Amino acid sequence: MNTLNKLGWSHFFESSLSFEEKQNMTIGRVSTVNKSNCIVIHENGSKTCELAGNLMFGLDENEKPKTGDWVLFLDYGDLGIISKVLPRYNCLSRQKSGKEIVEQIIAINIDYAVIVQCLEIGLNLRRLERTLVQLQNCNIEPIVLINKTDLPIDDEQQEIMNFMIDTYQAIPISASHGSNLNLLKDKIITGKSYVFIGASGVGKSSIINSLQEGNDLKTGTISQSTMKGAHTTTSRELYILQNGGVVIDTPGTREFGLTAPNSESGLSGFHGIDELAKGCKFHNCTHTNEKGCKVLKAVKTGDISEDEYENFMRLNREMEHYESSLQDRKQKGKKLSKIIKNMKKSGYKS
Ligand SMILES: Nc1nc2c(ncn2[C@@H]2O[C@H](COP(=O)(O)OP(=O)(O)OP(=O)(O)O)[C@@H](O)[C@H]2O)c(=O)[nH]1
Ligand SMILES: [Mg+2]
Ligand SMILES: [Zn+2]
C-alpha cells in the first residue's frame, strides 16, 4: 500500500481530480490547522502550507482546510500553497456551546469515532447517547472505550459499565496498565481514519500514545476538586500509525451539541424523538397512551418507525432506571446515616 492509501486516500477523492491537477499538484492531508498556516502530510513527509489568496478570501470559515481534509498544493520548497480543498466524504461537527448556534468542525473524512469515557470522571449514558446520534447523522461508525479500569469502581458505575458493554460493545481498557489495548488495536485498520473524542482528561492522548511506541503526545492530570481535565491537548492533530491506521487527537469536549440531523423527515434517531416529545400535551407524558402525545402521533403517521419508537422507549426506561436507582441509593444512604446517628445518641456502642 502506498503512503497516500495509508493516509486514507480512496477512489472517492481520486475521482474528483482532473488530469492537469494530478500532473501539476501535490496531494496531501491536513494534519493540523494553525492560525496562519496548516501542516499537510504527503507522500514524502510533511509540509507547512498556506492558503492561496483566492481561497483565503473566497471560502467560508467552515470550507477552509480542517484536520482530515485532502488538499492540493504547489510545492515551493519550504512552503506549500494550497490551491484546492477536495470534496469531503463526511464531516464530524458539533454545536458549539454558547448562546449563538455555531457549527464547529471537529474532523473531516472520518471512518470511525473512538468515544472515550473513563471511571475517574464517571460514565455518562446520556452523553454517550447524544454522541452516538450525532455520529449517525454524520455517517461515522462508533467505537466506545471505557478507560482507567485500573481505578476502583463502585456498584453504580459497574452497572453502567456492564450496560455499556452489553449495549454498545464498549471496550473496557486501561491506557496506563495496557489492559485490553489489543482489542482496540484489532479494530484499527490500515487506511482508515479514527477520531478520538471525549471530555478533557478521559485519556485520549494517553491511549493514542500507548497505541504506538515513540508517540509522545502531551497528557495532563485531572483536578481532584472539580474532577475536570486540564485541557491539555489544544489543537486537533492527525497521526499515521506505523501498524496502519490514521488517528486524530482532539481537545476535550464535554458536551456534544447536536447539529441538525440529515434524515429526510428530520425526526429519525433518539434525539429527533426526544425533541418531538417536548411538544407532548403533558410534560410528564409517558408516550404510551396519553391524549395529545406527539410521539404516538408520529408513529401512527409513519414519521417514526415502530423500531425507532421501541428503541426510544427502551433507552428512556434504561436511563430512568439508572437515574432513579442512583437517587434511591443516595436517599437510602442518608436514611442509614440518620439511623446510625440516632443510635449513637441513644448510647449504642458499635
Ligand atoms: N489511572 C489511570 N490514569 C490514566 C489512564 N489513562 C490516562 N490516565 C491519566 O489521565 C490524565 C489525563 O490523560 P490525557 O491523556 O491527558 O487525557 P485527554 O483526554 O487527552 O485530555 P485533554 O487533552 O485535556 O482533552 C493523565 O494524568 C493520564 O496519566 C488510565 O488508564 N488509568
Ligand atoms: Mg489530550
Ligand atoms: Zn408523549
From TrEMBL:
Domain CP-type G positions: 99-256
Segments for region (Disordered): 323-350
Subcellular location: Cytoplasm
Enzyme class at the top of the EC tree: hydrolase
List of residues binding GTP: N147, K148, T149, D150, G198, A199, S200, G201, V202, G203, K204, S205, S206
CDD domains, sorted: YjeQ_EngC
Keyword Transmembrane helix: no
GO CC annotations on file: cytoplasm
One GO MF term: rRNA binding
Its EC number(s): 3.6.1.-
Record's function text: One of several proteins that assist in the late maturation steps of the functional core of the 30S ribosomal subunit. Helps release RbfA from mature subunits. May play a role in the assembly of ribosomal proteins into the subunit. Circularly permuted GTPase that catalyzes slow GTP hydrolysis, GTPase activity is stimulated by the 30S ribosomal subunit.
Subunit structure: Monomer. Associates with 30S ribosomal subunit, binds 16S rRNA.
Protein's name in the database: Small ribosomal subunit biogenesis GTPase RsgA
Organism in which the protein naturally occurs: Marinifilum flexuosum
